[in-house]
Amino acid sequence: MSLLRMLPLVNWNNGIIMIVVFAAVCIALITALVLFMNSGKNKKST
């Protein structure tokens, strides 16, 4: 068995950073959408 087969071919540190950034962007977009929807409801009721 060669040494290359035992070594992982991915950089987990970079992958974890990318996943965290993607999750943060998704949460920010969902939060902005919910706030936008709620602000529309408040304007209609007043």
Features:
mainly alpha, 83% helix, 46 residues
What separation lies between the terminal Cα atoms?
73 Å
Helix content: over 70%
Q: What is the number of E strands?
A: 0
Largest sheet, described in full?
none
Q: Counting H and I runs of at least 4 residues, what is the number of helices?
A: 2
Q: Which spans of ≥5 residues are poorly predicted at pLDDT below 50? A: none
Radius of gyration, in angstroms, nearest whole number: 21 Å
The computed structural class is: mainly alpha
What's the rounded overall pLDDT mean? 79
Strand content: under 5%
Helix-strand string: HH
Note down, in words, how this protein is organized.
With 46 residues, the protein is mostly helical. 83% of the residues lie in helices and 0% in strands. The longest helix is centred in the middle third of the chain and has 34 residues, at 12-45. The radius of gyration is 21 Å and the shape is rod-shaped. It starts with a helix and ends with a helix.
